[in-house]
Amino acid sequence: MTISRRGAITGAVAAGAALACTRAFAANRGTLGAAAARAGRFFGCAGQIDQWNAEGDLRDAVLAETDYLVPEVELKWAAIEPNRGQFAFKSLDGFMNFAARNRKKVRGHTLLWHDSVPPWAQAQLRENRDWSAIGEYFAAVIPRYGGLIDQWDVVNEPIETGGRMDGLRENVFLEAFGPEYIDRAFAQARQFAPNAKLMINEYGIEYDLPEERDRRYLLLKLLERLRDSGVPLDGLGIQSHLDLRKGSVAVNAVSAFLKAVDDLDLFVVVTELDVKESAYTAPVDVRDRFVADEVRRYLEAVLEQRAVTGVVTWGLCDRHSWLKVTPEDLARFPGAWTHGGGPGLNRGLPLNAAMERKPVYFAIKDQLSST
Hints:
By secondary structure, the chain is an alpha/beta fold.
């Protein structure tokens, strides 16, 4: 079975009803997707199909605001192929059908990631150094969704600072095949997706910290090597998990890095934007202002770069954020909540838990509109 845009569009009446709800949500309000489109860019968000199907308000917001959808977990290897040759496509097919019915594009996140390798594949790669497991996985997945996915994160998070001179992360792929595993993955992905954009996706380049300075340097060297070697690399995803505990984003360093990426003739997508809060005892309006100000500073620097083609948030509303208020966060404020309760959710996404737009929503919209 191959999921193509035409083949996946079923249930025209249901699709029309969904689009009507979307238009009602967006009426006279403008959307992030519309703001991005006016600037020749796109806006998207990650999420899980089960949540979108179960929560109508979330589904309507996702459909109203976005151009691109990103499967948060459904496309990862461990989720798709728990046993060799036994593919669990039900959730991913549901995600893709949802996107097709609602005329959304999809970013393919992600093919190779060290944190999502099925146990059977880890054992085989380490013991036999046999590429066929990866080849069969690529062959089963990439053509199946080729009609919907036009960007693939082929390799996710290949850089690790403080280790090897070349900066590559010590993972099962490096152990089995050496540094050329990246070259080989891109060549194989191009075989199955001749017209899609193939990308590396990486985190931790936003702040003026030793680790992040090193990651920017090492990542740029990797991109240069791949381009010089003729690897079919088209673009770079910068995850952009901002963190108020780290201070303010290093706008000059980020700008210089993105200019260097542009010089390599690579496009850039902000792929996983959100914000980890710090001041959990502050009033909600103050917390929201801190989040919005950080995103505004960051996107002002990022979106002035011509190489940046789109912005994707990692989730759309706070009730489904991977960023949690942790026991370590609470321990920084002893006695702050003596009568029970707490700070509530981390408030680092465009919409709050009630699906209301927050200051960070308008910070994103304003920056998309101003470029």
